[in-house]
Amino acid sequence: MKEKSKRGNFTSSFGFVLAAAGSAIGLGNLWKFPYIAGESGGGVFMVFYLVFILILGVPFIMSETAIGRKTQLSTIGAYRSINPKWTFAGIIGVVCAFFILSYYSVVGGWILKYITVFFTSGHTTAAAPGYFASFTANPVEPVVWHLVFMAFCTVVVLFGVEKGIEKGSKIMLPALFVLIVIVAVRSLTLGGNAMEGVKFLFIPDFSQLDSPAKVANVAVQAMGQVFFSLSIGMGISITYGSYLKKDSNLVKNSFIIGGLDTLVALLAGLAIMPAVFAFGFEPAAGPSLIFETLPAVFDSMPLGNLFAVIFFILVFFAAATSAIALLEVVSSFFIDSLGWKRSVATISTASVMALIGVFASLSFGPLKDATLFGMGFFDFLSYLTDKILMPLGALAMCLFVGYSWKPKSAAEELAIGRGGFRAVGLYSALMRFVAPALVIIIFVAGLINK
Ligand code: PHE
After folding, report:
1. Which positions ≥6 away from 153 have C-beta within 8 Å?
2. Higher per-residue confidence, 214 vs 266
3. Is the distance from the beta carbon of residue 100 to the nearest atom of ligand 1 less than 6 Å?
């Protein structure tokens, strides 16, 4: 482990919050959240989602940053330095990041394709019915875009232009925020059934939860989405926390990160659901949701093309900052733990992920009928990471804090930089009992349900 040397620091808490928010805010908020909420019943999903953000998401970010700042080491080294028996918790995270990026990059490729479509042939093309399905079913084009996306991330990680990306995110994240508000306002004012979309998203219809299996299903979807969206269970916040100074307030920052991420997800929901209802789309359409509704929204607004191009470029950057964090997690494992050269580690891991991604991409076309545990390959990767590896990584993390490092030590770290931490009892109960029990119950229920 050579992490201890040359350890930089974030110059400000603001820089840290931005970097952490940059990793958190990505396709999870803009693409996945609306479609998962749509598939899982809207309002009822939202209730579970918000509760899990509060009782699991924020405490987990607090814990991960505390581990990082305490040890001043990145994920695997951090676990190992406190208790070598828990090194595996870091390894789960690396494996998980590996599989996420392999399919994340496929979606990143779709975003690139949409930028070029809006740029060259206009919104009407992308808004045409069936456009998305026929594009993704093509055996070559989406694969090429996926490879371009992965190559872009690889180059960035290779050259380590992190400063550029960091500076860039300071402009791009706020810009994305402004644009998504504009799109949401447009979507909300489409008339017709638009308001039905808002009701769908925010008014829970509990009559949907008429069997334990359905409750478990919505809960498992919501928990997976909270972990995915906040990048939890992969030790990303451990690494970021390790760059933090002792005077930063970990508790406050965790709430801000959780809050910003949730805000962007809600805005994405508000940009999409009203349009889904106004144009008569299907809220449970799945992964195609934003690729079909957003072009329709842009098609219906003045200067739609211009907004569309800018919007998808920003989505691309949001996706790229998350993808880069994922690639960095995986390659730094090979660099730090196995002593590989950065170039070798980055190029070889990215190539293997790219190859896996090719099959994920083809599962929308030529490999549509090839299934693994009853799922197409893309869906399988998403299931494996959201429902299995992320919960396992998160479970390992809270058990580690609860029983190995001990909540008292974590609370001592959390107290630094904010003049105390009074909720020790609550925090300890959460990490030792509530969080592990919830994660286990939902995890098992999800497995049985499948
Ligand atoms: N949180 C990111 C998103 O919402 C995805 C991600 C997961 C990034 C895990 C890094 C680690 O898109």
Report:
1. 101, 105, 108, 320, 323, 324, 327, 350
2. 266
3. yes
